[in-house]
């Protein structure tokens, strides 16, 4: 029996909200108790709410129309406007399946497909995102404006315990099959490398928490444990751009090299590593299909990479709206819709599970999914300290 929920709109006319339906998940600030009388939405104490798509549209339209059939107080209008900024959308199952078939066909016909990934592909591994309704930057902004929340759901994790998600593994399989040529990632969690993506086919724009590099010979060392929090001790050399230190306290292992080792994390203010960026640009310029997975495409200069292909199709899967959504309709450099891409709202794992059904034969798909436990055992060996 399919799981169902109750829509958060008090006067919802649509009945139970099934997970197979399209839905909208939001989060806002919670006002003091004395200002909660007459609210039209059944907000959780955390500020979260769940709606049918139609009910959410009705609530949003009520913020600008005082005569609307959802009579909102001034306080609730402000709550909804705040929730709208980070609303997370999920397409109905049928829509996801239709788009998955189209995406699989695009992959099969593409000559140089690439993937561009963000924090959203790692949330199912246990990492919080940044700009989601409960993301790190979202909560910081909300606290500055409305004060600290009464509830908190901060996720605590160690990088060593994280394992590749379904999306990570699907991308690795697509790389193996030659259907995806290169992955450009904004993530520093090391999960692409752990999944088996060759270093030559991966551009980690913001670094890798398991990597150290020498400040003299540029040698890169990959560790089974995170190196970004190692104690340095003694005099700490501050980075002139981010005002933090990248040094880990280790010395280079290359014979005859006197260099010191640094983590590879790109902090706010840091420039991207030139060789990493140039490899990403090289692949982005010759691509004819870009899979954007789990990213809001709001971080520059990384987001400019997805439209560098002269005549490319753009696929975006993310829970939130992005500034590149309109490009999916016509394709890069192809006015009139001849390069029509795909826009899917929802979880990347959900989409990629459907895509892989159209990429692999039924038997190969069953065998690949069935080998997940074996792959997990291999990941655990690579993360042993």
Description:
The protein has about 375 residues and is an alpha/beta fold. Helix content is about 30%, strand content about 15%. It has eleven helices and 15 strands. It has helices at about 55-60, 75-85, 95-110, 135-145, 165-175, 190-195, 275-285, 325-330, 350-360, 360-370, 370-380, and strands spanning about 5, 15-20, 25, 50, 90, 115, 180-185, 200-205, 210-215, 220, 245-250, 260-265, 290-295, 315-320, 340-345. The protein has a six-stranded parallel sheet, sandwiched between helices. Strands 10-9-12-11 form a four-stranded antiparallel sheet, with no helix packed on it. Helix 3 crosses helix 9 (about 350-360). The chain is globular, with a radius of gyration of 23 Å. The two termini are about 45 Å apart.
The level of helicity is 25-40%
In DSSP terms (H or I, runs of 4 or more residues), the helix count works out at 11
On the 0-100 scale, what is the average pLDDT? 88
| Low-confidence regions | none
Decide which structural class fits the backbone: alpha/beta
Task: Identify the strand order in the major beta sheet.
Answer: 8-7-6-13-14-15
CA gyration radius, whole angstroms: 23 Å
Strand fraction: 15-25%
Number of strands: 15
Q: How would you sum up the major sheet?
A: 6 strands, parallel
Helix-strand layout with pairing:
Elements: E1 4-5, E2 17-18, E3 23-27, E4 48-52, H1 53-61, H2 74-85, E5 88-90, H3 93-109, E6 113-117, H4 136-146, H5 166-177, E7 182-185, H6 191-195, E8 202-204, E9 211-214, E10 220-222, E11 247-251, E12 260-263, H7 274-285, E13 289-293, E14 313-318, H8 327-330, E15 342-345, H9 348-359, H10 362-370, H11 372-382
Parallel strand pairs: 6-7, 6-13, 7-8, 13-14, 14-15
Antiparallel strand pairs: 1-2, 3-4, 3-5, 9-10, 9-12, 11-12
Helix pairs in contact: 3-9
């Amino acid at each position: 029996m399919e799981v169902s929920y109750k829509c958060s709109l008090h006067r919802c006319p649509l009945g139970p909200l099934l997970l197979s339906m399209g839905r909208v998940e939001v989060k806002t600030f919670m006002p003091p108790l004395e200002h909660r009388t007459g609210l039209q939405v059944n907000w959780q104490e955390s500020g979260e709410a769940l709606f049918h798509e139609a009910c959410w549209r009705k609530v949003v339209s009520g913020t600008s129309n005082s005569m609307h059939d959802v009579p909102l107080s001034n306080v609730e209008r402000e709550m909804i406007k705040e929730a709208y900024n980070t609303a997370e959308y999920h397409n109905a199952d049928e829509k996801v399946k239709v788009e998955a078939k189209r995406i699989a066909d695009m992959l099969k016909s593409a000559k140089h497909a690439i993937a561009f990934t963000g924090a959203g592909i790692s949330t199912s591994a246990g990492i919080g995102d940044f700009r989601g309704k409960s993301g790190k930057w979202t909560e910081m902004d909300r606290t500055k404006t409305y004060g600290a929340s009464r509830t908190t759901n901060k996720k605590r994790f160690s990088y060593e315990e994280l394992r590749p998600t379904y999306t990570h593994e699907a991308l690795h399989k697509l790389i193996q099959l030659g259907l995806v040529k290169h992955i450009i990632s904004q993530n520093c969690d090391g999960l692409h490398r752990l999944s088996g993506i060759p270093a030559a086919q991966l551009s980690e724009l913001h670094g890798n928490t398991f990597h150290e590099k020498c400040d003299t010979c540029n040698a890169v060392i990959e560790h089974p444990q995170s190196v970004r929090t190692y104690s340095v001790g003694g005099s700490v050399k501050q980075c002139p751009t981010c005002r933090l230190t990248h040094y880990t306290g280790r010395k280079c292992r290359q014979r005859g090299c006197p260099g010191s080792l640094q983590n590879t994390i790109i902090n706010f203010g840091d420039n991207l590593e030139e060789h990493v960026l140039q490899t990403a640009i090289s692949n982005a310029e010759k691509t004819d299909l870009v899979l954007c997975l789990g990213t809001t495409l709001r971080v520059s200069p990384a987001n400019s990479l997805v439209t560098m292909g002269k005549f490319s199709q753009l696929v975006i899967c993310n829970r939130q709206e992005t500034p590149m959504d309109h490009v999916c309709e016509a394709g890069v450099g192809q006015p009139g819709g001849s390069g029509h891409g795909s826009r899917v709202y929802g979880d990347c794992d959900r989409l990629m599970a459907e895509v892989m059904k159209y990429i692999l034969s039924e038997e190969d798909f069953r065998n690949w999914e069935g080998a997940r436990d074996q792959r997990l055992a291999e990941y655990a060996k690579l993360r042993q300290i």
